[in-house]
Design a protein that fits this description.
3-stranded mixed beta sheet; 18 helices; alpha+beta; 49% helix; single chain; 17 strands
Length: 521
């Protein structure tokens, strides 16, 4: 909804100028999205910058203005284009970005390209006088499939531990979403989608489905998987502001709820084979992109009698469809379709389950961290679904010290079985090679570390497809103690160190060392 207020002269002709109307639902939606941007960047450690957001919005807005001027001869305020750009910037993330990079220009052109392609689809891909796809949805899906998880990824399902700012974020999304969709008579459509998705995900969770997420130190499985997705702010944004685009949904009430139930079912099926969060999120977004071209088929289920009412065709009769009956039928249809896929989902369950984690082993080593420096905790640790309070940091520091002591004991006693308690991945290979050398030469080299500085941060995983790890960055002095086969110290050397010690939970609850590298590598 816009309003002609004036015109301007371009060359020899006068061009009408259409300015925004405060009653335009797109402006209300944009206010919600911009509010989430502000809250996310300032309080929730969103890994996106102001230049990236502006690049997406300005690019989409300029293209929308230019193409609309060409098609209609009017200069129209690009409410739709800027909403597309802000939506792209809300969902899309550049791999390697960290929280707090408010003014970084890194990768701004990718945001411009994706938002530009998104808004172009509205003008180029059309059917029956209207665009076929939700512009930001189709643009994001194509970008994720083409560019892949090594370069970009969607916004995480999980944002931050529940606290005051997360409560505010939920309130903005839910209250704003309900008010806007209710005004457009699309609220029941959003609710049906969520109910069908929740039911389908419950089946997945019950079959032992797991996914790897960068905000979790262990695979997200079972009830934790279900809870993370059905309460995900990204899912709420998808259901309130993406699947309910008035221009890309069926026109009748029965068609709309059937459409949303189908999107919920398809989202469940696309998430089902996904073992990483990246593909689960792409599956969610793709469910709408695949369903949108079929909306005319859903319209055939409904004889339209205005926007607020509809009728359902039963044989040759037209039966009035009240809000209660269509809502109930939509839920029933979604539940029936989901139940029909249960056997397939359950049968595929074993392929989605990770190996059962080993039980935690009691570690019997004596460590004293009372003389260690205070650990400086980086803000990036807030991006995990754990409460990184003083107790957690103290316990993790003690575990780190135990791992170093177990390594030392394994080398002193040439007992390779101990290494499995402290090390994994690349570090396990390095320490096993040291044990092999000790056996071959008879000289056992044991490292003891004295820390002068110590900090903790989230490990940057370039591939973006692994469980989260933590890094102790430490400086100090390391003593290399040389022992003979009888355990007698025969030599000692010392040197300063500046290293990064990477820890992960590879099995059970214990954190183990997986890499030790020079700082900055």
């Amino acid at each position: 909804m816009t309003m002609e207020t004036r015109s301007i002269r371009l060359g020899r002709r006068r061009v009408p100028v259409i300015l925004p109307n405060r009653r335009d639902a797109r402006l209300h939606t944009a206010s919600v999205i911009i509010s989430i941007h502000v809250i996310g960047i300032t309080a929730l450690a969103f890994e996106v910058s102001v230049p990236q957001i502006l690049s997406a919005m300005v690019t989409a807005g300029v293209i929308d203005v230019a193409l609309t001027l060409r098609q209609t001869g009017k200069l129209v305020w690009p409410a739709s284009g800027m909403l597309t750009g802000s939506g792209v910037a809300l969902i899309m993330r550049l791999v390697g970005m960290g929280p707090g990079e408010f003014w970084s220009w890194r990768g701004w052109y990718w945001f411009a390209v994706v938002s530009g392609v998104s808004v172009l689809t509205k003008h180029v891909i059309r059917l029956g006088g209207s665009h076929v796809f939700n512009p930001s949805n189709i643009g994001l899906v194509v970008a994720f499939l083409v560019l892949g998880p090594e370069l970009i990824e969607p916004l995480d399902f999980w944002w931050a531990p529940l606290g005051p700012w997360m409560v505010i974020a939920y309130a903005v999304i839910i209250v704003g979403g309900i008010l806007i969709t209710r005004r457009l008579y699309l609220l029941e459509m959003a609710i049906v989608f969520w109910a069908v998705l929740a039911f389908g995900l419950a089946i997945l969770a019950g079959s032992g489905h797991c996914m790897i997420a960068t905000w979790s130190t262990t695979p997200v499985c079972d009830g934790r998987f279900w809870g993370a997705l059905v309460t995900s702010p990204e899912v709420l944004i998808f259901m309130f502001f993406m699947i309910t685009d008035p221009k890309t949904v069926p026109e009748g009430r029965a068609g709309r709820v059937t459409f949303s139930a189908t999107v919920g079912l398809l989202a469940t099926l696309l998430i089902a084979p996904s073992t990483t969060e990246f593909w689960a999120k792409v599956g969610l977004l793709s469910s709408l992109a695949l369903s949108s071209p079929m909306r005319l088929l859903f319209d055939r289920l409904t004889e339209i009698d205005g926007v607020r009412s509809g009728v359902i065709r039963i044989g040759k009769r037209l039966t009035a469809a009240t809000p209660a009956t269509t809502f109930t039928r939509g839920l029933a249809l979604g539940a029936a379709l989901t139940l029909a896929t249960t056997a397939i989902l359950v049968a595929g369950g074993p392929a989605r389950q990770p190996a059962v984690a080993a039980a935690s082993t009691e570690i019997d080593v004596a460590v004293d961290v009372s003389e260690w420096p205070e650990v400086n905790v980086d803000r990036s640790v807030e991006g995990l679904d754990i409460v990184a309070d003083d107790a957690f940091v103290a316990e993790l520091t003690r575990t780190f010290a135990e791992n170093l002591e177990i390594e030392a004991e394994a080398v002193r006693t040439v007992d390779g079985s101990l290494l499995g308690l402290s090390d994994g991945g690349e570090r396990l290979d390095v320490m096993q090679a040291r044990l092999d050398e000790a056996i071959a030469t008879g000289i056992r080299i044991v490292d003891t570390y004295t820390f002068s500085e110590l900090s903790l941060r989230l490990h940057e995983a370039p591939e973006g497809q692994s469980s989260a790890g933590l890094v102790f960055s430490g400086r100090g002095r390391v003593d290399h103690l040389h022992y003979d086969p009888d355990g007698n110290e025969i030599d000692r050397t010392s040197e300063d160190f500046d290293l990064e010690f990477v820890l992960r939970q590879l099995g059970g609850e214990r954190w183990v060392l997986v890499a030790v590298v020079p700082a900055g590598d």
